[in-house]
Amino acid sequence: MEDKKTYQVYRTIMLIILVAFITFILTSVGFYQYFVKGENSNKYLTVRSFSSKNKDISQTLNNYRAVIDKYYLGDVDEEKLKEGAIKGYIEGLGDLYTEYISKDDMQDYIQDTMGNFVGIGVYMVKDTRTNQIMILTPIKNSPAEKAGIQPGDYIIALNEQECTADDMTAISTKIKGEEGTTIKLKILRGEEILDFEIARENIIVNPVEGEILENNVGYIEFTSFDEDTAEEFKNKFEELQKQGITSLIIDLRNNGGGIVDKALEIAGYVADKDSTLLYEVDKNNNEKIEKNKKNPIINMPVIILTNENTASSSEILAGALKDLGKAKIVGTKTYGKGVIQQILTLPDGSGLKITTAKYLTPNRIEINKIGIEPDETVELPESVESLLNVDRNQDTQLQKAIDMLTE
Q1: In CATH, what number does 209-406 get?
Q2: 115 falls in which pLDDT band (50, 70, 90)?
Q3: pTM of the entire structure?
Q4: Class of domain 116-204
C-alpha cells in the first residue's frame, strides 16, 4: 500500500516536470520565431545561407549581395557598390600610403603629380591628430593665397558639405574643376570659422623659390617634388650662382615629398659621380642601388633645413647628402616616411598607389617611423604659433644655418 502511494506521488511529480519542460521548449521556440525568424522583428535576423567560414572574397561579397538584394529597400548603384568594395578592400591593408584611385580621379591625380591643374592652388595634408584636412601652404600667387587662405588653416566644409581627413582624396578632386567656376570653403583658423568663395584658375605649379641672404648665402625653398622641380632647382641655383653666392641653404621644412627620381636628381647636383644615393629594398629583399650618374654642379658648403613635416622624398635628399658628407642638417628630426609608392594604372582606367619598397640611406640607415636626426638640433621659439608660417625674425633655424655658413 505504501509502495502504491509512493508510486502515485512520483508519477505526479514527473508529470509536473514534463509539462514544465514542454512549456519551456514551446516558449523558447516561440521567442526564436519572433526575434530571429519573425517578419515583425527588425533587430535580429539570421541569414541561413551566409557562411562566414568561406575565405574566398568573391563568394563572401556574393553572399552580402544576396542579402542586399533580398532586404535592402533603396536602389543599388552598381558602380558605387563596386568602388566602395574595392576601396574598403585596399584600406584593409592598414597602410597609410596605399590607396585606391577611381577611374574618374585618376587623371586629376596624374595632373597633380605633374604639377599642373585647374583649381585654387593649395597643398593639403591629413592632420592625423585631429582627423582634419590641413592647408600645408597655398601656392604663391594662386587664387587661394590671394583670397587669404593661410598655412595651418583647416578645411571643415566644401560647398556646404562637412568633411574630415578621411575625405581628402574626394575633396582634392572636388576642388578642381572648370576654370572660372567657384567653390565655397569653410575654414577653421584657431577658434574662428571663416567662409571663402574662390574662383578656380589654371595653376602652373612652380614651387622653387630662391634668394640671396646676408654674406652671399644662397637660399632655395620648395614644398614638393613635382615633375619639373629638379630642373627648376637647377635653374634657380645657376641664377643665384651668377649673382655671387658662396654657400647654399636648401629649405626642406614642411616639404612632404613627391617624385623620388626628382629628389635623387637634385641629390646628384651635389654628390660625387657614381656615389650611392639610395638603396631600395622590396618585399623579397631584392635590392636596387641608385647611384649618381652625373658630375655635380654644386661645389660649395650646403646646409639643409628640416622639421617634423620633412617627409618621404625630402628625407631621401637630406639623408643622402648627410651620409655622403655633402651637407649638414639643421633643425629638428624629420617625419620618418621611409617607404616608396608606385602608381599603377589598372586595365579599367582606375589606379592603385601602393607601397612597394622601403629605402635605406647610403649608410644603410632605415628611417621609416624613425626619422633623420639633424647635425644641429635647433628648436623654434615658443612664440612661433605654426611651423608652417614662421617670420624671418623668429626663424632661429634659418639663422643658425646662416651662422654656420659664415663662421
Answers
A1: 3.90.226.10
A2: low
A3: 0.72
A4: mainly beta
